[in-house]
Amino acid sequence: MSVNLIFKIAAVGILVSVISQVLKHSGREEQAFLTSLAGLVLVLFWILPYIFELFDTMKQLFAL
């Protein structure tokens, strides 16, 4: 896993939290929730290959 991925995840987290707070203060809680959900889905798509790689490594480690 590269450091760039960690910085991208941190940037998305900061951006989503700022947008969410602005939307909440303007009375749009539903859009704030959807923004948070979209940020979560985006980050999950980024880390999904690493999760698959982890499970493959664990399977190879414990294979007899």
Automatic annotation (TrEMBL):
UniProt keyword list: Membrane, Transmembrane, Transmembrane helix
One matching Pfam family: SpoIIIAC
Domain of life: Bacteria
Bilayer-spanning residue ranges: 6-23, 32-52
Protein name: Stage III sporulation protein AC
